[in-house]
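TOKENISE THE FOLD
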Amino acid sequence: MKTERQQRISKILIPLDGSSSAERAVEYVIEYMDTLKQPPKLLLLNVQWKIATGNVKLFIDQDTINDYYREQGMAAFQQARARLDAAHLPYQYHVSIGTPAEAIVQYAREQEVDQIVMCRQGEGGLKTLLLGSVVAKVLHLAECPVLLVK
């Protein structure tokens, strides 16, 4: 039986970093759609770390930097978009620049999402140890429910 919460979800944000583990969140949402009264609006988000700091802009123009962000973001969306297209589910995608957790929460707030669905681990490895857990920060900062997919 569908709960009241499941029937009211109108926007779901799925942050993607291009990792195979992040794709599990997309798979979960595709399977989850059957439990909803009306399909929600799906928002895909990729956050690119800001690389244009210090003297970088002296050597690389802003258009080249923007192209890099866009290319990396689109690469991160590639598999998710293919799966959602195959499932005939509409979605929107956006590339943000900044610190991942803060950018995810800010975008969720701006778009007034009802739920963030993300995998409990992203790229991981040394990057996670050095930068801290994006998931932990999103859980702490988000104003809407965050569903973690294993």
